Amino acid sequence: MEAYFKLLESYGGRDKVLRLCSFAAMAAAGNLKGESARRLLSVAGQIGEARTVLRLYDGLPMLRRTLRLGLGSREQDVLARLLTVLSTWSIQLFYPCEALAWAGKHRILGVKDPGKWAGLSVATWAIFLAAQIVKSLLKIPGKWNTIEKLRKQKVLEGNSDIREQNEVLHWSLAELQHELRTEFLSLVQNLSDLMNAVHWLPKGWLWSGKLSLGQSGLLGVISTSVMLYSSFLTPPKHK
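Request: output the structure for the sequence above.
Response:
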């Protein structure tokens, strides 16, 4: 219970809970009819509007982070570096596009075609998700192979009298397993979100507009549940 209260104390934690409630309402509305469905859709819409307004404040902090990352020089592999740059700048462009769409929709600014900006914001989010998925698919095999090597090494050195060496090997294996688990969860989350992102693109793009309300809500529930579960995962501590 204490962990739940800590989650609600942070902006990110509250956003995840709101996201889950919004998608759960959509999933339920997709399986209901009449007034019940209308009310649930209204709840989902109001939560979505609240989250959009709160995201207006995320643009500048995200820009600062983007400028710090630069051209992804921390990544050793060229492809990984390119994917990092692509994902970083695409999600950065998401914020001004969404802000213009919101301001135009509510007639705060004289934006000629708010729908166009809304479509662009979804497109940038989809590019970000696709880049993150490719990065995960590149990382998972390497981490898996390293874990297998460490497991074999652990078996071979299981009877070793060097206690310190065994502890380092055990900790390295636990840390890699945690990283692999995190990468798998990220892959599931991003795949679920990408399904929705493409669905919300303008008609003519892959499966845009093809998902039902219930399916879209369910995908959102899956991705958000993974987000919440991941937020409670803690890396192994080195004794």
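The chain has a mean pLDDT of 89.
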